[in-house]
Design brief:
Layout (H helix, E strand, L loop, with lengths): L1 E8 L3 H6 L5 E2 L1 H14 L4 H18 L3 E8 L6 H18 L3 E6 L2 H4 L2 H5 L3 E7 L8 H12 L2 H22 L6 H17 L5 H20 L4 H24 L5 H35 L5
Parallel strand pairs: 1-3, 1-4, 4-5
Antiparallel strand pairs: 2-3
C-alpha cells in the first residue's frame, strides 16, 4: 500500500515567489522549494505546509511505510483556472507515483477546497491543515493586521468592499441634520478604497489618472462608442445615488429603514447603468471585430 503525501498550493505562491514550477515529486525537490520559498518570503504559510508535508513523509518512512511526497501548484487566478492546473498536475503525479491513498497537507481552507477533486481521483485517508503558532499579544495582532492589509487578495476581496459599504452608509447619513458621522464614514470609506488600490503614493494616483485621461481622449478622437456608454452609465449611477438619498431623506424611521429606502430607489438606476456599460462594450467589440465578445 503506497501513500502519497500531497501538498497543495492553490494560488501558486511557490511559483510566483521562487520561479519553481510544479509538480514537485520527491523529498529533495520539496525541501529545495521550501528552502527557496522561505528565503524569498519567510512569512508565507506555504513554507510551513511544505515542511509539514516533508515531516509527515519522514515519519511514514521511519515507520517502514511505502510513501512518496509531491507538491502541486495552481495559478494566481484562484478558481476554475487554478483548479484546472492543479487537476492536470495531480493526474501527472498519480500517473508517475501510482499511490493507493493520499495524505493531504494544506495551509488553509483555500487549498482544502481542492480536496474533493483529489478525492474524486484517489482515496484520501488524512487531511491536515497547518497552523502557525504565535504569541497572542496585542502587538502581534497589530502586526498581523498590518501584514494582511498589504496582501493584495485581502485588499481586493475584503477592504475594498468594506470601503464601498462605508461610503454607501455615509451617503445615507448625509440625509440627516447631523452630518458629522456621515463625513467620518465617507472619509473612512475613501481611505479603505484607496489603500485597496495598487498605488504606493499619491504620484501613482495622478499617473493612473493621467493614463485614463489619455485613453479617454484617444477614444473620443477615434470615435469609439464605448466612451459615450461609459459616461452615460456614470451619469445613471450618480442619478441613482441622488435619487436614493432624496428618497431616504423623506422617509421617517430608523437608519435601516432609510438604507433600505435608498437601496430600493437606487438599485434600478444601478442595473440600468450596468446594462448600458456592458452594452457599450458589446457594441464596440461588434463594430470593431464583426462579432460580439463571449
Amino acid at each position: 500500500m503506497k501513500i502519497l503525501v500531497l501538498c497543495v498550493d492553490r494560488d501558486d505562491d511557490i511559483g510566483v515567489k521562487t520561479g519553481i514550477k510544479g509538480p514537485l515529486v520527491g523529498r529533495e525537490d520539496n525541501l529545495a522549494a521550501a528552502t527557496k520559498l522561505g528565503l524569498a518570503d519567510p512569512e508565507d504559510s506555504d513554507v510551513n505546509a511544505l515542511l509539514c508535508a516533508i515531516s509527515t513523509y519522514d515519519n511514514l518512512i521511519r515507520e517502514a511505510q511505502d510513501a512518496e511526497i509531491a507538491t502541486i501548484c495552481g495559478d494566481v487566478r484562484v478558481g476554475a483556472t487554478s483548479d484546472l492546473v492543479l487537476a492536470r498536475q495531480l493526474d501527472q503525479v498519480l500517473e508517475e507515483v501510482r499511490p493507493d491513498r493520499v495524505f493531504l497537507i494544506s495551509d488553509g481552507a483555500e487549498d482544502e477546497a481542492f480536496a474533493p477533486i483529489v478525492g474524486s481521483r484517489i482515496r484520501v485517508d488524512h487531511i491536515r491543515r497547518v497552523y502557525v503558532r504565535q504569541t497572542p499579544t496585542a502587538e502581534s495582532l497589530y502586526y498581523t493586521i498590518g501584514r494582511q492589509l498589504k496582501n493584495p487578495k485581502v485588499r481586493r476581496k475584503i477592504i475594498a468592499p468594506l470601503g464601498l459599504v462605508l461610503l454607501l452608509f455615509g451617503a445615507i447619513y448625509l440625509s440627516i441634520p447631523t452630518a458629522a458621522p456621515a463625513l467620518v464614514l465617507i472619509l473612512a470609506g475613501l481611505y479603505l478604497v484607496l489603500i485597496s488600490l495598487p498605488f504606493q503614493s499619491i504620484s501613482d494616483v495622478f499617473a493612473w489618472l493621467s493614463r485614463r485621461y489619455e485613453r479617454v481622449r484617444d477614444s473620443v478622437a477615434s470615435g469609439e462608442l464605448s466612451i459615450f456608454f461609459n459616461v452615460s452609465a456614470l451619469i445613471l449611477v450618480l442619478v441613482g445615488v441622488f435619487f436614493g438619498v432624496d428618497s431616504a431623506r423623506t422617509r421617517e424611521g430608523s437608519y435601516v429603514v432609510q438604507f433600505l429606502t435608498f437601496a430600493l430607489n437606487a438599485v434600478w438606476f444601478f442595473v440600468l447603468a450596468t446594462l448600458t456599460f456592458e452594452g457599450g462594450k458589446v457594441l464596440s467589440a461588434f463594430l470593431r471585430h464583426g462579432r460580439a465578445p463571449r
